[in-house]
Fold Sulfatase-modifying factor enzyme-like domain-containing protein.
Amino acid sequence: MALTDLVTLPGGTFRMGSDRHYPEEAPAHERVVAPFAIERHPVTNDQFAEFVAATGYVTTAERPLDPAEFPDVAEADRAPGSLVFTQTPGPVDLRDWRQWWRWVPGAQWRHPFGPESDLEGRGDHPVVHVSYADVTAYADWAGRRLPTEAEWEFAARGGLDGAEFAWGDERMPDGAVMANTWQGDFPFRNTGWGGTSPVGSYPANGYGLVDVIGNVWEWTSDAFTPRHLPPDAASVDRGPRPDLLAGAPPSQALHVTKGGSHLCAPEYCRRYRPAARSSQAEDSSTTHLGFRLAADPV
């Protein structure tokens, strides 16, 4: 079993969130996390393939939509598939995400851009098109778990408490590109990777973790709330809060994702920061969504 090596962190108190950017990141507050370990890089295609070969697991994107949950969707439109980013030919209204996202039948982790694509040369890229059920199934097989949002942010900061980015306060220190984010004019001109990159293509943070910013958004176990819980109620990391998800179908059960992706750009999605957060429904799978696992210290 070729699992990612774990980096053990001491835990402690840190300043979580931000009052300077998007409203869901506020309020900034002190949070306490216990010691834990976290994988050095996101789970790769090769690692996920080993899991599938060992278990025969079938991902959410490889299954048709559940007619009980989507009764108004025509049978033909319930075919297996996933959301794929498509670069536009020119400038578009950035308020309409449908300009660059499309549902592609047959898109899944083995075929990230559709049935004609494959993973040739992408074994060391982060696996994508994985739903919450998919990543928790992998975690069960690996004997690990998803990190909480607080654990993930503590780890991503790399010891730089309160810094804007995982590497300091400048987005591009001395002009250096520090992470796989959008380089150019979103969503029509990109001089960067134009998709995922091999894990570890950019410098590690202070804890030796790579790709905590950019490349792919990463699942956490926490339920998403529009703002952080009040600091006096959330000073200690309380974990996933399953009560916030009780009874919700997968299409409505929202989890926090962290880190931004190769699609984050200054003019559209300035979420390539440790404090940034987004929401994804449990059945979501896209070309820019992956994960890494955590574990309790031995």
About this structure: The mean pLDDT is 94. The chain has one domain: 6-295.
